[in-house]
Amino acid sequence: MDIKVPHLAENINTGIVASILVQEGDVVEKDQTVMELDTEKAVAPIPAEGPGKVSKIFVSEGDSVNVGQVVVQLDGAGGASAAPKTPSEPQQAAAPIQKPVVQQQPTSQAGYQYQSPSGFPPPASPTLRRMARELGIDLSRIRGSEEGGRIVVADLRDYIQFLQAGGASSAPQQVEASGPKPIDTDFSKWGEIEKKPMTTLRKKISEKMVESWTTVPHVTQYEEADITGLMELRKKHKSKYEKEGVKLTLTSFILKAVIQVLQKHPIFNATIDVARGEIIIKKYINMGIAVDTENGLIVPVIKNIDKKNLKELSLELAELATKTRDRKVGIDDLVGGTFTISNQGGIGGTHFTPIINTPEVAILGLGRGVQKPAAVNGKVEVRTLLPLCLSYDHRLIDGGSAARFIKDLLETLENFKDKDI
Questions:
Q1: Contact between residue 325 and residue 293 where contact means Cβ atoms under 8 Å apart
Q2: Pick from 299, 136, 339: nearest CA to 209
Q3: pLDDT confidence bin for 111, thresholds 50/70/90
Q4: 36 within 8 A of 97, measured Cβ to Cβ
Q5: Who contacts 7 (Cβ-Cβ below 8 Å, separation ≥6)?
Q6: Please, are residues 33 and 45 in contact by the beta-carbon 8 Å criterion?
């Protein structure tokens, strides 16, 4: 019986062997975890599909593996399976895709080369980028038809059809895969340096941030909420919640307020399908919470948050944050988000520009609440003001909509009552 790397989640095809929990000769039961994979953002267990004795382990900790690759072989009641291909003979599923040599350029693309002053690749969705990689096509050779030169499926399809037709150029040209170029500068000439490999998580964060920033026109709306009354309300009910084992935090109140505002402004809980020309508005609210960990930024998701009360929100928020920092969060906990909150207040940040967690269309950043003089009923008082930073996708959301959203959020935060607790 061969134990293979299973399908982990959408768009996750590889992982790093984090730990091997069995040795050759061990007897394992059905569904027993034999090893753990460190994927892009979570540690995923690989279970045995049936009972048996470990006859061969084909990988070591730290190895990179692909979906479908055999990692462990078991001898069971039905006898040992045929020996799988060794790592020197890669499985078909893990074999590198051969890049076709494109002989000619299409008429409409002849001589075209995407140029970016920032050095970033041409704008396209992650799905389309993966498709192009599998086909061995350089996206920088395709002229995008959407706003800002964004490449869509129709552009890729047209490009392929032109290539198949032979194009108009007779000069043979080979299309090479696009991507960042290595840095050739020898920094050690000026002093001591240290080189560390980027982790799987850090690579994914880098890829995700570049993708979002280069494909989504970001606009950030800044505001400050007077949370003086809210902090007094929290202090009043804090001990009561603690007796029930619940930590009542400012973030819990923020979540409750954002839920109400999203229900009033559903366009902020949407996704744009550019290829189909559709706006997908979700009737549910799954809130992503950006968590700062030693390994990097991870965004777990609280599902159906609009159906939970303040106590339930506080409990799930604390549990999910702990699981995330301990890297015990599951892959299912990291997908399905409709809106994200990034809170830097605990660290001490003020205003910043959070990057949208695509395919979502908005994200709310929170800074540290500070005491400042403010005018209240014609008098100057010291109040606690909370920085709010709302980044939104300007393809779908206009400035007026963002201003109304943040205005309603301010009113909700500044008017919490005992009955809401």
A1: yes
A2: 299
A3: low
A4: no
A5: 67
A6: yes
Cα gap 382→225, rounded to integer Å: 13
The domains located in the chain, with CATH, are: 2-76 (2.40.50.100), 107-178 (no CATH), 201-420 (3.30.559.10)
Place of tokens 């001898």: 75
Closest listed residue to residue 369, CA positions, set 173, 225, 215: 225
Burial class (CB in 10 A: 0-12, 13-18, 19+), 144: middle
Is-catalytic flag, 265? no
Across residues 39-65, what is the average pLDDT? 82
Which residues neighbour 183 within 8 Å (Cβ) at sequence distance 6 or greater? none
Average pLDDT for the chain = 82
On the 0-12 / 13-18 / 19+ scale of CB atoms within 10 A, 3 is buried
Nearest to 335 by CA among 302, 290, 367: 302
Distant-in-sequence, close-in-space partners of 72: CB < 8 Å, separation ≥ 6: 2, 3, 22, 34, 35, 48, 54, 56, 57, 58
Could you tell me which residues come within 8 angstroms of residue 81 by beta carbon, excluding any fewer than 6 positions away? 1, 2, 73
The whole-number average pLDDT for the span 149-175 is 67
Q: How many CB atoms lie within 10 A of CB 352?
A: 16
Q: Cα-Cα-Cα-Cα dihedral of 390, 394, 399, 400, to 10°?
A: -110
Q: How confident is the model at residue 96 (pLDDT cuts 50, 70, 90)?
A: very low
- 68 to 13, 93, 95: CA distances (angstroms): 9, 6, 11
Helices (H), 88-198: 126-135, 153-165
392: left (phi over 0), alpha (psi -120 to 50) or beta: beta
